[in-house]
């Protein structure tokens, strides 16, 4: 049916076909790879009943998964080392998967060995560093204790030769008076304990040994690297003196429980200095070895980073190829793979060329076969789009993906969406701000597209062309409203009005006299600031909202006609499109006509009164509310047409559908009806004998719901368009408040500080409220008008996207 219509890439989706590919096994991998480069074939899973482990290429997918794991390991190591994968592609494309698998295995083994050696060396270095700290801190303690003991001994010998004193140390007195052979030998345990555990460590030691130990702790100023965990920890050096093996065993267990690292210590000062010197020498040697190892490791990671992106993409491609091959069924001869899937009709030659190239490059003796299958299955929806139309298509797809080849609302959304937004956001000053912000995103889109942006910035950047159109239309409507941050300008010539005398400055328009021709474009600047500004703009914007709403709803109904004509559905033309057009335009089309006539004639007729009494008493005389001759007769005719249109929509269609079903069942008609909107009614249920069941009650109720929805929706949808008036008024008044109550108020104080504060507050209020919140508010309202009021007149949106096997999508997912 669509052959006589001119092809439009965006109005109707591409013509699709179900194709079968028969590919020899030896050329299957290369052929699928070329189809992935082409990106125009959507494979169907012919092995859906099999689990992933039962499929033919499960082992190859496992291999690719293992290579992907190694690449993730390399990436983690590069991130730790501060490297980022290079975006420059090297000659990694020349490597095949088998060689890459071997190379990745070798690199992983080498890197793991380096990490293990580095870890061992780092642990040894940390242990030696802690040992050095123990030698230094404990040596200081022994040195100070020995100095104190020597001083006390000299004092004792000088003053108390031969007699004891109550002030003398008991141990010293006992040692002095006891036989040296009977003196108790004290043992010691030294090491480092985490500072946060030091108090608990001390208490447990005291309780476990009942106070029969002497503990000395010294704080280490800088955090040290723990040899076990590898983390930086604040620690204390401790030394514990004890007597007896039982006390030693308890101390060792407590040290292990608290994670205290123990190191040997001698009380010989000479040996202490010797050990410190040896440890310092080993530390410097270890540091040199560690530095050389890290340099070698960094060189290896840098080499990997140059080819990482290429390897990663190659592994992803291979994995996706084998996943696709698993969706193919094996021929009974086990020499061919059979694939089924969807592709656009225009891509037939390209797909055949790719298959021939795959056969030639793999030196296969048998060529691949491409054949079109005939099916009643609904094809996927595919629109060719660019970066400009893509964001508008996303707005439509968020509501629902278009049914195959139905009229696409995004063609009209490109204009109507930003225009309706601008009706609510009409200020050419704010429009210029949005325009400049969008130009920044557009001029830097190459750089920004490769960067990680936040969620909100990502959404804003993705819709940059939508915002560009919104800003351009906002400048246009702002010029019509004559508002620049709520300030009017005489851009297109002087005002048509002037004051009668000097006393009429604050008067209403009755104090103004028209002295020139009408202001050529937009609202006359003299209206702003006058007493009648609000009533005038209210009336203008309210009537304009109704006109725009009725126009867009009529466009939706007209598109339903083109849908019905395209699919050859005469029932929808005569029993849906015609009565809907009559009903909508008999009431609200007539209201639009009255608005235009009133504007043209300057009449003071009350349109509320006209519309209300058109229903309550259509035969009454209109009196002063009459706008043209024959208006009363026209109203009666339109009212009767509206009343006739309701049963016209409701009753004929279900009976005609039943009649068509009966004729098809008798074999008298072979009309293809599967493309109609009511296909579920005609192909609803099949019994065991294959006969179609036609539930007349379901069809009638479905039509009744549609009729009620349209009749009530005609009223509610028209009223819904009044949001254009409400938001436009709110935006204008908010802008006026910020200008008069912030900027002008600050200007009136003649104080530079107050003026600067006022300007800052005005800028923040304008950006935060008008350019961010109001933009979002107007965007959401325009979105609702398109989804609910416009698209529900013709758009089903129950299709599904065309998702081809394409390597380009792998790169997008990675980004």
From TrEMBL:
<dbReference type="GO" id="GO:0046961">
    <property type="term" value="F:proton-transporting ATPase activity, rotational mechanism"/>
</dbReference>
<feature type="transmembrane region" description="Helical">
    <location>
        <begin position="544"/>
        <end position="562"/>
    </location>
</feature>
<comment type="function">
    <text>Essential component of the vacuolar proton pump (V-ATPase), a multimeric enzyme that catalyzes the translocation of protons across the membranes. Required for assembly and activity of the V-ATPase.</text>
</comment>
<keyword id="KW-0472">Membrane</keyword>
<feature type="transmembrane region" description="Helical">
    <location>
        <begin position="633"/>
        <end position="651"/>
    </location>
</feature>
<dbReference type="GO" id="GO:0007035">
    <property type="term" value="P:vacuolar acidification"/>
</dbReference>
<dbReference type="GO" id="GO:0051117">
    <property type="term" value="F:ATPase binding"/>
</dbReference>
<feature type="transmembrane region" description="Helical">
    <location>
        <begin position="464"/>
        <end position="481"/>
    </location>
</feature>
<protein>
    <recommendedName>
        <fullName>V-type proton ATPase subunit a</fullName>
    </recommendedName>
</protein>
<dbReference type="InterPro" id="IPR026028">
    <property type="entry name" value="V-type_ATPase_116kDa_su_euka"/>
</dbReference>
<keyword id="KW-0175">Coiled coil</keyword>
<keyword id="KW-0375">Hydrogen ion transport</keyword>
<keyword id="KW-0813">Transport</keyword>
<dbReference type="GO" id="GO:0000220">
    <property type="term" value="C:vacuolar proton-transporting V-type ATPase, V0 domain"/>
</dbReference>
<feature type="transmembrane region" description="Helical">
    <location>
        <begin position="752"/>
        <end position="773"/>
    </location>
</feature>
<keyword id="KW-0812">Transmembrane</keyword>
<keyword id="KW-1133">Transmembrane helix</keyword>
<feature type="transmembrane region" description="Helical">
    <location>
        <begin position="419"/>
        <end position="443"/>
    </location>
</feature>
<keyword id="KW-0406">Ion transport</keyword>
<feature type="coiled-coil region">
    <location>
        <begin position="97"/>
        <end position="124"/>
    </location>
</feature>
<dbReference type="InterPro" id="IPR002490">
    <property type="entry name" value="V-ATPase_116kDa_su"/>
</dbReference>
<comment type="similarity">
    <text>Belongs to the V-ATPase 116 kDa subunit family.</text>
</comment>
<dbReference type="Pfam" id="PF01496">
    <property type="entry name" value="V_ATPase_I"/>
</dbReference>
<feature type="transmembrane region" description="Helical">
    <location>
        <begin position="574"/>
        <end position="597"/>
    </location>
</feature>
